[in-house]
Amino acid sequence: MMDQHMVSGHAPTPPTARMENHGPTMAKIAMRTGAELLARTGSMVAYEGFIQYESNPAALRRVASQWLSGESVPLMRCHGDGILYLADYGANVVCVPLNDENLSVNATNVLAFDAHLTWGVQRVKGMAKFAGQGLFNFGISGTGWVAVTSRGVPVVIDCARDGEIFVDPDALVAWSTGLEMKGRRSFKASSLIGRGSGEAYQLGFSGEGFVVVQPSEDSTERLTEQQQPS
């Protein structure tokens, strides 16, 4: 006989919001007729009720047109009535409510968002000079829900409450585009032991809005540093 106490600790609970976490690495979305969702292709892990998911031709055309920027996000359209569970290979998930706001997200961290939101690749001003970052990001705006992923448990900073924050661009997941941004140049700790160029950049954020930061820098940058001669 299966241990009912063990089962109850992991059993689904009634949804309390359109989008919320079921544990740290799964998003739970309350689906209802007429409220469609766009989700990363292949992210569905389970559902209750009657949920359909399929390729969205319009979204695919938009994604194809954005491949040139290097920030494409493969999307599927989800609709129906029930509860949908999404995950991305065990990555941590953060569910973010937008209230007539604009969010800029690293394309690799997009998990899902309400289909009625405005979205697309956007140019990020002033980012070209920062290591590991390009000129483009995935922009989502309007009123609704967004789920983003993080490599490890992220920290979400409310700049209006907590004040200015400086972030390594390679650990940056998402931020409110209404925030004021500025750059700062310093030195990498690795330069003290002869690895890398010694230069590092941070992005400063201040104002009304929030920043999502993951506890992991870009692995390609660390690999490049490790391959450089000491």
What can you tell me about this protein's structure?
The chain has 230 residues and is mostly beta strands. The protein has a single domain (15-227), classed as Mitochondrial biogenesis AIM24 (Double-stranded beta-helix). The chain is built from 4 helices and 15 strands. It has helices at 4-8, 57-66, 159-162, 219-227, and strands at residues 19-21, 27-31, 37-40, 44-55, 75-86, 92-105, 110-114, 118-123, 136-150, 155-158, 165-167, 172-176, 180-187, 199-206, 210-213. Strands 1, 2, 3, 4, 5, 6, 7, 8, 9, 10, 12 and 15 form a 12-stranded antiparallel β-sheet that branches. A 3-stranded antiparallel β-sheet has the order 11-14-13. A hairpin with a 5-residue loop joins strand 1 and strand 2. The longest helix has 10 residues, at 57-66. The chain starts with a helix and ends with a helix. Residues 219-230 have low confidence and may be disordered.
Concise synopsis of the structure shown:
By secondary structure, the protein is mostly beta strands.
